[in-house]
Design a protein that fits this description.
Elements (H helix, E strand, L loop, with lengths): L4 H27 L6 H35 L5 H9 L5 H8 L4 H11 L6 H6 L14 E3 L10 E3 L4 H14 L4 H7 L5 H4 L11 H14 L8
Antiparallel strand pairs: 1-2
Helix pairs in contact: 2-5, 2-7, 5-10
């Protein structure tokens, strides 16, 4: 039987729509994570997050030790002056407080909590592992699905996990909300003391530090601080 031109066009359109729907379906399925056991979820999280935290921590510690040595000798340079501007520090002491990276156990524990072990939408779509908000409409970001009243909440979008980890360390190093946290980490590297100074990171307040403590202890994340 000979098909009319209109019928051929209709069939072609139907096939095209089918292909588009199939691609959409496959894309949506890829965006969803397959069912995992708790052990599998944690193993996946560790393989994604821990290497990035280790890499960023090593870079930050190298920079901190270099700047510490220069300032201890009573010297300065253009890099130090630029870092003071970036980290809102007026003295060498304040700059060192900002530049010294806090223990990796805390970063890993916060990543686990804020991203639901690297399964959250923010992480899957934006590499935002720490729930860092965005207040700049010109930077890459995505909207939260739920609003606060009539206000849309935005979170930053990162190109890589490593970029997200660096920005997280930078946020804690710059914000006035974590001044006591920075002061305390110059006195101790004990993660269980330091997490008590992160109550302003979350609306949970002091409970936030307690939850971080539990996560670090149960998962032995403090082992990351031993090497």
């Amino acid at each position: 039987m000979q098909l009319t031109k209109q019928t051929k066009i209709a069939i072609a359109i139907a096939l095209l729509l089918s292909i588009i729907l199939l691609i959409f379906y496959m894309t949506q399925k890829e965006a969803e994570l397959p069912p995992m056991t708790v052990q599998e979820k944690k193993a996946r999280f560790s393989s994604l997050i821990v290497p990035a935290v280790n890499k960023v921590y090593a870079k930050l510690m190298t920079r901190y030790e270099k700047i510490k040595k220069i300032t201890a000798a009573g010297q300065s340079n253009d890099e130090i002056e630029q870092l003071k501007i970036e980290y809102k520090a007026t003295t060498n002491s304040e700059l060192l407080m900002a530049l010294k990276p806090h223990p990796r156990s805390i970063a890993v524990a916060q990543a686990a909590m804020e991203s639901s072990w690297a399964t959250s939408r923010f992480f899957r779509e934006a590499n935002n592992i720490f729930g860092v908000w965005s207040f700049d409409e010109d930077e890459p970001r995505i909207a939260a699905l739920q609003k606060r009243g009539d206000k849309t909440i935005w979170v930053k979008k990162y190109n890589t996990i490593e970029e997200a980890v660096y920005d997280y360390y930078r946020t804690l190093a710059r914000s006035s909300a974590f001044a006591e946290f920075r002061q305390t980490k110059m006195l101790t590297n004990d993660p269980f003391i330091l997490v008590t100074k992160l109550d302003r990171y979350s609306e949970k307040g002091s409970l936030y530090g307690e939850e971080l403590t539990a996560i670090i202890k149960f998962n032995k994340f403090n082992d990351y601080d031993k090497n």
